[in-house]
Amino acid sequence: MMENKKNDTNLTAALAKNTLDEIPRPKSDAREIVGLVKHSGKIDGYQLSDGSTVSKEKGVRMAKGGEIKGVGVAHRGDTEYLKSIPDSSDSNNLGNLPSVSG
């Protein structure tokens, strides 16, 4: 029974990764996203582990350049945004991060 649960988790992670357009390779000094900048409930930007905040667009550019780790790039319509790379932990998902003021 344990083996089935592990297989289900692996399948779910594989399917979630398929929703990402790109999973950039982070540089060794890449920062992490530690908070979300929101306006009217929508994510407008990201707070990084060095304390800086960046717009959603700049965050996507930085991730593509390997400057942010733990995220992949996805899109909705013509808009690109960052998503957590699926793993076995929910605590590091972007949606579970605190909101911060930009």
Strand order of the largest sheet: 3-2-1-6
Q: Termini distance?
A: 47 Å
Percent helix range: 10-25%
Distinct helical segment count: 2
Q: Characterize the biggest β-sheet.
A: 4 strands, mixed
Structural overview:
Strand 1 (33-39) and strand 2 form a beta hairpin. The relative contact order is 0.22. The mean pLDDT is 85. Helix content is 25%, strand content 30%. A 4-stranded mixed sheet has the order 3-2-1-6. Strands 4-5 form a two-stranded antiparallel sheet. The longest helix has 16 residues, at 2-17. By secondary structure, the protein is of the alpha+beta class.
Which SSEs are present, and which pair or pack?
Layout: H1 2-17, E1 33-39, E2 42-48, E3 53-55, H2 56-64, E4 71-76, E5 79-84, E6 99-100
Parallel strand pairs: 1-6
Antiparallel strand pairs: 1-2, 2-3, 4-5
